[in-house]
Amino acid sequence: MNNPARTSVLIYTGISLAAALLFLLATYATGISYPAVARIGGAVWVFILSMIITMPVVISNVNKRHT
Amino acid sequence: MPVKEEKIMKQISIPVEGMTCAACVARVERALKNTPGVADTAVNLVTGKVSITYDPQKVSVEQLVKTIRELGYQVPTGEIHLTVRGMSCAACVARVERAVSGLPGVLNVAVSLPAEYARVTFYPGTVTPAQIREAIAGLGYEVAEKATGQEALDRERQARRQEIHRQARNMWVAWPLSLLVMLGMFRDVWILPRFVPEFMGNTLFLWALTTPVVFIAGWQFFVHSFNGLKKGATDMNLLYATGIGAAYIIATINTFWPGAGFGGKGATFFESAALLTAFIVLGRYLEALTRGRVSEAIRKLLNLQPKTARVIREGREMEIAALDVVPGDVVVVRPGESIPVDGRVIEGHSAVDESMITGESIPVEKKPGDEVIGATINKTGTFKFEATRVGRDTALARIIRLVEDAQATRAPVQRLADLVAGHFIAGVHVLALVVFLFWFFYGYHAFFRPDSHFILSPYSLAQVGVFGFALLLSVTTLVISCPCALGLATPSAMMAGTGKGAENGILFKGADAVEATAALQAVLFDKTGTITRGEPSLTNVVPAPGFSQEELLRLAAAAEKNSEHPLGEAIVRGAEKAGVAVEEAEEFEAIPGHGIKARYQGRTILLGNRRLMEREGVSIETLLPSVKSLEQDGKTAMFLAVDGQAAGVIAVADTIKEHVPQAIARLKKMGMQVIMITGDNRRTAEAIARQAGIESVLAEVLPQDKAEEVRRLQARGLRVAMVGDGINDAPALAAADVGMAIGTGTDIAKETGEVILIKADLRDVVSAIEIARATMRKVRQNLAWAFVYNSLGIPIAAGLLYPSTGLIVSPELAAFFMAMSSVSVTLNTLLLKRFVPSMKRGQRKTRGEAAQPLPGPALR
Q1: Of the four, A50, B46, B98, B322, which is 20 to 30 A from B207 by CA?
Q2: Which residues share a beta bridge with B79?
Q3: Nearest-angstrom CA–CA distance, B846 and B375
């Protein structure tokens, strides 16, 4: 993949989606009965925060590798 | 694959100085081609440039430059000064520095948040100023070449006004609507139901009020954070945007879809979204107001520059713009006028107020031959002077540059704060995620209580579900963790400190100089020119029986009237000062190594050393005790004989400057070790040291060994300042922890020395240390406050108190604390403006204001 911007998007979105999915799975794994909105809302919040956390790290690393 | 290889190759063209022939060309080309990673190189001797095609993954520009330099050639560096607007925190500073230093060919980047200034050093040909500007603009900041002089002042004022105006407009939107939202949210509480109409509590009404607050006043945070994220960078705006956005979205969902499970109609945190925006906007507004004040020192200096000058051209006097004055122009200055440029007086006398440049409150007498400094004020007479330095070369322009450069540097103490703040934003989001996960999976089920409330609010959280509760704590943590105060703590104090120094005629060359000066333990003074005036003065006149002091002085001065010897000049000056009429001798003969022989009013006068008296057969036995005593005091004693009879002794010596004992006494009181260093003999040195009040003397030290003495003191664990004239003492000044170069008004461009004292007054050494200590005290207070705020605020916001009290911090309260923390840091820094160095107390302040006597240490 030669386009660093696209590479970055794929990586940080992938990581964030994985984190959100993991969160969703965890809501089932704990045995507590969460309302659906809490599960989905929580997953969305985890996704947003994960995006914010991973974006700068991934972009700068990918850019570094391409320069 | 060759195609791929071409893609990653880069080409640069570096200027190289010192290449003179084809052999040089071959040498440079060979050396570069042998460097791993270099694919091709071509040297153009005519243009003095080397074109290099290289693989940036294998070799850096710095390595290429090093290779060229190792061959003995020079690679010049360029520097640009930029104004960067829109930075709000240390994270922004880190972003700009990272983006610019990542460009190939950039050597050094220094960014100052309070000064909104960036200085970039780079290798021309590897990167262009336009690329540097683009890199900064790409992060979403406004960037422009830094203007100088009046232009800079105007632009800076305009930008400040615009920012204040923009934030004021946002305040007008945010505050009235937020207060209405708050009233609406709490209309069921206390006595409010009696006054607040019911419709104000309607969630749709509240939503309608909150929406413009978030999308008009708060829009800036979304735009800035999006621009940053696009470039892979995060800053404070992202914290605000996430906080405001999350509160607003939850409230909106709960308004329109109350059954969605986010807490329902009882959990519409409209006041959180609205007040959060309002407080952040308030913080921005106050910051815009106060930030300009911290950089007031530069503005004051810029304001001093006169706009017009009266010059004599083609035989007539004409008024022209001060910028159009050229060296060699004859400038006329009348009483009350500002001197437009630097120059030398050629006609007339006057007294000039130089307080704005040197900090010296007493007007300085000016006569033909004396130097005048641009921007100082002519007080009494009209005089003409020849312009010597104009435009960017004037003392004032150089002072402004030095102060600006100093304000853009970073103190060692700031590095930790920057490191923390630079990684804070990502860290805060990680923390927000951890807080959310903790309260979602464990905390809510373990600790939630139906009587939950926000701190300082009657608002009940009973209806909030697990997601709403965890989200609330997560958002509050985001908001309270903003490291604004941390980012502002050091640079704002350094700006105020260096500005305060400039006001008092003390130029710190960087923030590290301020920090090092504050930590000094010993001060080493050079003797000649620093403690003493550096020229002999008449000190004693001891007449033999039958002669009076006045007669002796009159005879000696007449004999020396035509002498060009410094000792003779000192006698003539001393006689004139004593009011003795100095006449000319009829005959005068200098006898090398002995003294002089003159004839005055028919009498033969001999003035010189023992050898002269012995040669001429004059008996001096009776004078010897006086001579011995004078010599013990380090003075040079000369015998005077009239018509073969000893008439007395005249002594001259290099005398100490005014206020030296006062300055030394104060330094000792401050706990400093004070030492004098000189190449003079021990007897003279000790005599001067005694007068100055110095006990430690390093005498008979050769100039080249002075640096060694400095290192010896450092080896004893002392942090040493060397105070000298900056030219002869350059090695010692460089070796010391802090080199303090004493200037003489205009001569301030000295390269050696971290601190420049514009006027040759040793009391400024004391003032420099006091200002540096006061500045560092402010830095420590600011940092302590910022760290305490963050380290207390974050755990509380994350819900540490909740299990025991049932209370949590609301997002708007978090925003209030956050805004107050940076405002309080800036206000604390502004207190430094009141600081008056101890040696200046009681004196009249610059520009004619009376100094306020302050008790004890002027600043806590």
Answers
A1: A50
A2: B121
A3: 13
Q: What is the pLDDT of residues B182-237, one digit of tens each?
A: 787 766 666 667 777 777 778 888 899 999 999 999 998 888 877 777 666 666 67
State the total domains in chain A.
1
Question: Any catalytic annotation for residue B154?
Answer: no
Neighbours of A27 (CB within 10 A): 21
Give the range among B150-154, B396-400, B439-443 with minimum mean pLDDT.
B150-154
Nearest to residue B436, comparing CAs of A19, A36, A12?
A19
Using CA atoms, how far apart are residues B172 and B127, in angstroms rounded to an integer? 44
Whether B439 has a pLDDT exceeding 90, the answer reads yes
Q: How confident is the model at residue B752 (pLDDT cuts 50, 70, 90)?
A: low
Instruction: Spell out the domains of chain B, with CATH numbers in brackets.
Output: 10-71 (3.30.70.100), 78-146 (3.30.70.100), 151-292 (no CATH), 308-389 (2.70.150.10), 410-505+765-843 (no CATH), 506-531+659-764 (3.40.50.1000), 535-656 (3.40.1110.10)
Burial B155-188 (b: 16+ CB within 10 A, else e): ebeebbeebbeebeebbebbbebbebbbbbbbbe
Decide: B49 and B71 in contact? Cβ < 8 Å. no
pTM, two decimal places: 0.66
Residues 1-20 of chain A whose Cβ lies under 8 A from any Cβ of chain B: 2, 8
At B850, is the secondary structure helix, strand, or coil? strand
pLDDT at B844 over 60: no
What was the pLDDT predicted at B29?
79
Token look-up 């009239």 returns B642
Whole-angstrom distance, CA of residue B536 vs CA of residue B567: 6
To the nearest 10°, the Cα dihedral for B376, B379, B384, B390? Answer: 10
Q: Judge whether B99 and B138 are in contact, CB under 8 Å.
A: yes
**Residue that wins the pLDDT comparison between A67 and B168:** B168
| E strand intervals along B277-432 | 308-313, 316-321, 330-333, 342-347, 350-353, 364-366, 371-372, 377-378, 383-389
pLDDT band, very low/low/confident/very high, at B777 (cuts 50, 70, 90): very high
Question: Nearest CB to B426: which of A30, A53, A67?
Answer: A53
Nearest by CB to B445, which of A32, A49, A60? A32
Question: Are the C-beta atoms of B41 and B29 separated by less than 8 Å?
Answer: yes
pLDDT by residue (tens digit) across B28-51?
777 788 788 888 887 776 667 788
Contact between B378 and B364 (Cβ < 8 Å): no
For residues B575 and B676, the answer to whether their CB atoms sit within 8 Å is no
Partner residue opposite B232 with nearest CB, options A34, A41, A55: A55
CB contact under 8 A, B232 and A56: yes
Mutation for A interface: B249, B439, B440, B478, most A CBs within 10 A: B440
Report the distance separating Cα B396 and Cα B403, nearest Å. 10
**Residue type for B769, please?**
I
pLDDT in tens, B354-387: 877 766 666 788 888 888 888 888 887 889 999 9
- Spell out the alpha helix ranges (H) of B9-85: 22-33, 61-70
Instruction: Give dist(CA B182, CA B201) in Å, integer.
Output: 9
Least reliable range by pLDDT among B223-232, B276-285, B389-398, B805-814 = B223-232
- pLDDT band at residue B773 using 50, 70 and 90 as cut-offs: very high
Range of the domain at A38: 4-64
Q: Is B534 exposed, middle or buried (0-12, 13-18, 19+ CB in 10 A)?
A: middle
Judging by DSSP bridges, how do beta strands B383-389 and B330-333 pair with one another? antiparallel
> What is the complex's ipTM, to 2 decimals?
0.95
What is the pLDDT at residue A67?
A: 57
CA B290 to chain centre: 18
